[in-house]
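Researcher: Hi, I'm a grad student and pretty new to this. My advisor asked me to get structures for two proteins we've been looking at. I'm not sure of the right format, so I'll just paste the first sequence and hope you can take it from there.
Model: That works fine. Here's the first sequence with its structure tokens right after it:
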Amino acid sequence: MAVLNTDYASTRISLLNTQGALVRADCVHSMMIGGSGSLTISGDVVLPSQPQRGGEIVLIDRGNSALTFVNPTTCVIDRQMSIKGGTFQRPNPHDVLIVSDSKAYVTRYDKNAAPATPLAAGDDVLIIDPRDGDIAGRIDLSSYASQVGGTAVQARPDRAIIAAGKVVVTLNNINGTFSAIGEGGIVIIDPVTNAVVQHLPLPGVKNCEGMDYVPATKTLLVACNGPFGSIEQTLSSGVAVVNMATTPATLTRVITGVAFNTQPVTFQWVLSLPTAAAPNLMPDATMSTPRVHVYDASGAGAPVKELSFVADTVNGLPPHEIAPY
């Protein structure tokens, strides 16, 4: 597993084994190159929602608008590729999904107000070759944005995973100034044809992002945080349960944030229960005491914390994400 340690000014990747023990504290990190003042890896990086083909660590660099592929054995950067699509300097990539050796989808969260070409428009899923970064096209998602006060906001495609053989992308549905937010939603894409085969609104929840999929029941879980700063944030947060066994997919139910001790649900992650043998890892990004906590949740009672450790023993950057690769 990879641990993303960051203070949003610099980034460092640590590696854990399958038992949650620290293997390497300093795999790759932000560094200066060529005296140009540009960072090889910026301070605004996230990890993919799912492990990628080939077993490499893929860093989604929002600051550099790029993907960075890291060899986890040697901790050497194998390649980097831009997802700007030409003149779009800040497309703000949020996820990557490699669906074949020659094709990957990259969600581009922001929208270009004056694109020189369609490839530079954003608010879309960019189709690239993960081997060399060649751009094969894009899937425009702007038409699937929800309405706020009768006006369409930006679709803002966010996270992406494979579920039931299809690609599912969450839509945040927020305008350009983040002052208006619509109801959550997902789009389902056929990875063979690159066509959107379904748009499924998620009524009652907003600001939807992270997902998890349960193959045994073909159940998709979508985490929604609700609008930040709103007095009704908890009411608009929750977990949407989607049945992917049907065609089209159907919304089974929405579990509102009220069910979780009246606290808003985090939009980043929702996870199905792990196997009894798997460790439960929780990144704690407290600046004063950054730690990764390891819990045993195999028993019938409350999870028991087994140990805590510092993932970045070089600079002590706080861990924000843990993801398999």
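Researcher: Oh nice, that was easy. Here's the second one.
Model: And its structure:
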Amino acid sequence: MSEGSVEEVEPTIREKVKTVGGELDSSKRAGTFLQIDQRTQLVSSFRKDVEVLPILEALKKYDWMEDYYWKAVSPEKDEYTREVDCCEDINGYFIRASKGVKVEFPVEACLYLYTKGLKQKVHNVIIVEEDAELNIISGCTAHPGVEAGMHLGVSELYVKKGAKLNFTMVHSWESDIEVRPRSVAIVEEGGVFVSNYILMNPVKLVQMYPTAYLRGKGARGIFNSVVVALQGSVVDIGSKVVLEAEDTSAEIVSRAISSGGNVIARGDIVADSPKVKGHLECMGMILSEGGRIDAIPELESAYSDVELSHEAAIGRIAEEEIFYLMTRGLSRDEATAAIIRGFLDIGIKGLPPLLQKELDKAVELVGEGM
């Protein structure tokens, strides 16, 4: 399906969307969804085997959506999910990859806050059918000058048997915006769920704790996050993986930088089955006085035959590293920027080249901004 055209999107919005990975170009994407405030501005599917719809249209079109809508996330989870559930003009996207399809080009979904003071409410559902592979870039941002507002987003992600979902979320907000996503992924036997998260700009508050339930034998869950907390920002993020079947595995890797902001980096791996593996890694760097990082790793198991591990460290840039690079001809600022970029580059494994390019570009922008 196709609704709206790129030409109808004002130039300022198009440029801002690009900063969070949105190309709005059918030659580079398998599908596009752009929501401005509560209104669908642009929706297109460029392949027959990849479906992109506004969530309300999907609910009307498919009776079986009742098996997915509010099934991974409970509407009673907290006050913010209850607000989304009660919203009369709810919007959001539905994305589905058909059985067995391998989609190289990503689907892009951008949620854009245009009106100052608005509370944007979104409900998304993603389904990757059996043996399919899908890549999604989800960019969330605000219009220039829109410094106040709130984004409430519920996302339910379903990865079927033998399927793989690469989900990359890039946030670029403004200084007085609160962001509270609520996301849960259900992964079946042999499925792989990869979640990548990047926060690039100042924000009043981000509070999120995406969770993956690995419910089939051999399923894998991977969470990677790159976060920069600038002055005045509070970033409370984490990831949780529940290993519910044998031979499942989890990896959580986070890099956090505080440049005057506060970061709470959480991670939790729960072994609800024997013969599972998991590793959690949280590294933080404090660049200026007044900033704070709290690393909270958790491992849980009632079984003896599991392999769970974690490592966490918080520090600052070592003067000897800066000095070494300066002896190589870099200025102090250039040396510092190079070290920061290296720290943020977590070398995500198994990411398709196109998504890796998007991620590298976002990390480079963060490094330049520092």
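Researcher: Is there anything I should tell my advisor about the second?
Model: You could mention this: DSSP finds six helices and 21 strands in the chain.
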